[in-house]
Write a structure and sequence with these properties.
138 residues, alpha+beta, Alpha-Beta Plaits, 2 domains, 8 strands, globular, binds iron/sulfur cluster
Amino acid sequence: MIVTHKYFLKFPKCETETPIVYHLVKDYDLEVNIFRAKVTSEGEGYLVLDLKGKEVKIAEALKYVASFGVSIDTIDKGVIRDDSLCTHCGNCLSHCKPKALHLADPVTRRIAFDEKLCIACGRCIDNCPMKACSSLLE
Ligand code: SF4
Ligand code: SF4
């Protein structure tokens, strides 16, 4: 069965030049959709991506990735929303394509954040008038 999962991969300094994504495609027959990537001046890096393929191949690929000391997170994509700053104005809804930010209750109009769906595109950060959304990755 073909599945798609989102991951946040954080690379240690020593492995950023390893062509890991190339091997995910070639050796594990996966489709890789990168949403966000960065290599810091210190040489560390991160990728926010979808992996699409057979569940068993994804599991094998993640073992391969982890063997380089890469940390793998399925939920935290490095974007946070400070609930104490959010006024539930709804401005972010149209900017959040994967609907990670969504209307939780049509009566109270409260906005909820589902970290699992977030692809760390950063649009909510740029468009929240209250600066309630921020990134741990900058
Ligand atoms: S735009 Fe900001 S303040 Fe408005 S609902 Fe979204 S996170 Fe909350
Ligand atoms: S960064 Fe913000 S706008 Fe982009 S997917 Fe995550 S919650 Fe939605």
